[in-house]
């Protein structure tokens, strides 16, 4: 019954975009960690890892509320000095997918978080 009460409470709260985004990212990490654990328990050598690109300058805000879009445009003038380019942002994913040490399934980490 606890799960039902939690679901009901969740459905009664107003939708919060950034909270939902954060929860979805946490769900990805938890899913991948559990997948890695289950694969190892079955003796599988398939690694399952989480890759986070960091803060990347993208057009993810393009379809947001006009107020958020405007705020994003203002902050982007400063954030350009702190954000990665899309090319830089994909580097971690490419490295994890192609690094020789990570390709050796016997020695590869599984359930790891790369950033």
TrEMBL record:
It comes from the Eukaryota. The keyword Oxidoreductase applies. One of its GO terms (molecular function) is oxidoreductase activity. Keywords: Oxidoreductase. SUPFAM superfamilies: NAD(P)-binding Rossmann-fold domains. InterPro entries: NAD(P)-bd_dom_sf. Belongs to the short-chain dehydrogenases/reductases (SDR) family. This is Protochlorophyllide reductase. The lineage of its organism: Eukaryota, Sar, Alveolata, Dinophyceae, Peridiniales.
């Amino acid at each position: 019954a606890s799960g039902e009460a939690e679901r009901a409470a969740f459905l009664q709260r107003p939708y919060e975009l950034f909270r939902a985004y954060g929860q979805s990212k946490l769900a990805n990490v938890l899913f991948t960690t559990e997948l890695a654990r289950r694969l190892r328990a079955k003796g599988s050598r398939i690694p399952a890892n989480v890759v986070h690109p960091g803060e990347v300058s993208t057009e993810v805000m393009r379809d947001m509320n006009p107020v958020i879009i405007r705020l994003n445009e203002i902050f982007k003038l400063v954030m350009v000095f702190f954000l990665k380019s899309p090319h830089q942002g994909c580097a971690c994913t490419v490295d994890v997918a192609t690094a020789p040490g990570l390709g050796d399934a016997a020695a590869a980490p599984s359930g790891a978080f790369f950033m």
